[in-house]
Amino acid sequence: MAEAAAREGACHCGTVRFRVRLPDGLKGSRCNCSFCRMRGAVAIGVPLADFTVLAGQDALTLYQFNTRVAEHYFCSKCGIYTHHRRRSNPNFYGVNAACLDGVSPFDFAEVPVVDGINHPRDRAQPAPDIFGYLRFERTS
User: Fold this and answer.
1) Which of 41, 70, 74, 98 could make an SS bond with 87 (beta carbons 3.0 to 4.6 A apart)?
2) Do residues 89 and 106 lie in contact, with contact meaning Cβ atoms separated by under 8 Å?
3) CA-to-CA distance for 100 and 133, rounded, in angstroms?
4) Domain holding 90: CATH number?
């Protein structure tokens, strides 16, 4: 098995810096829940052990809502969302792809959107996790 790609990233102002190993590469998703819909980031899932804050741990601000299981982290200086601990799988972080050095959300031609409105932990019956897809087509 090949070694997972490692990347570094940061918030907008550079106060929070981190290193992440990407076992599945640059494979991102979005969510349609009320919070993620407003945030609009492409998140890349990584195991907790594959994410390390290099600088600015003290500048991270935590936001939680509803069940208070998911932990959303932001830089307290510039306000950029860097990562979150997932409610659907608390053993994973979702890392903001746009914070990774050299990566843009526009690098993803298609991004699956998971159904966070009907969260898997709230469903009595199994249902598809994919709600739809966001596509980016460059015009020039």
Assistant:
1) 70
2) no
3) 22
4) 2.170.150.70
C-alpha pair distances (Å), 75 with each of 35, 118, 131: 17, 29, 29
State pLDDT tens for residues 112-127: 998 888 766 666 665 5
Largest CA distance in the chain: 46
Both tokens of 31, joined, read 């969510």
* Cβ proximity of 138 and 109 under 8 Å: no
Q: What are phi and psi of 109, to 5 degrees?
A: -65, -35
Q: How far apart are CA 100 and CA 17, in angstroms?
A: 10
DSSP 105: G
> pTM, whole model, 2 decimals?
0.88
48 is written with which tokens? Answer: 């907790």
Residue with the larger pLDDT of the pair 121 and 54: 54
Q: Is residue 140 part of a domain?
A: no
Does 96 fall in a domain? Answer: yes
CA 43/CA 99 separation, integer angstroms: 10
